[in-house]
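Hey, can you fold this one?
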Amino acid sequence: MKYIIFVFGGTENQDEFVNSVCDNIVTKIKVDYIKYFYGDTSCVYTFKSEESFEEVSKSVTKILQNVKVSYFLLPYSDFEINVKIDEDTLEHLFGKELDEEVPDLDEMDLVEPQTFFSRLDEALANLKEEDFDNDNDIDILPLLKKKKPVKTLDEILDQINQNGVYSLSDEDKQLLDKYSNQ
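Sure. Predicted structure:
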């Protein structure tokens, strides 16, 4: 699985901090590769690991627990990420794979277009002040996952027309009942 970490907050020696985090990720997480890009007050790491999100999350928490920075750790897919950065940085962090392979449309779950950062904004907007009152980490990953699109009445009726009423899932039937009661 591929991961991305956004770290916000500068340190006295940013070069040393960035390299130290990189070294810790390499030694504490079994990574196939790691790449990073940083400035005075933030850095981004991308890496690939066969470890589960839970295992990677625990390791990253341990690595950054005594540093006064904020961070986001997220799994990502080449086909479900939207970035706006210069071409050299894009290639450095993600390689050319972001635009090399195009998945077969029949194999993709097509959903309402929504970029990663708009999902992140929505997840952050839903956090409450009391979520930050304790020392526990907040798992915002469930908040970032794409919401399944709700079929319209026309889409359900088209499905019935094309495949018959028996092709409807239980969810489709419930939606049809809901639409008929409106």
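The beta strands are 2-8, 31-38, 42-49, 70-76. Let me know if you want another pass with a different chain boundary.
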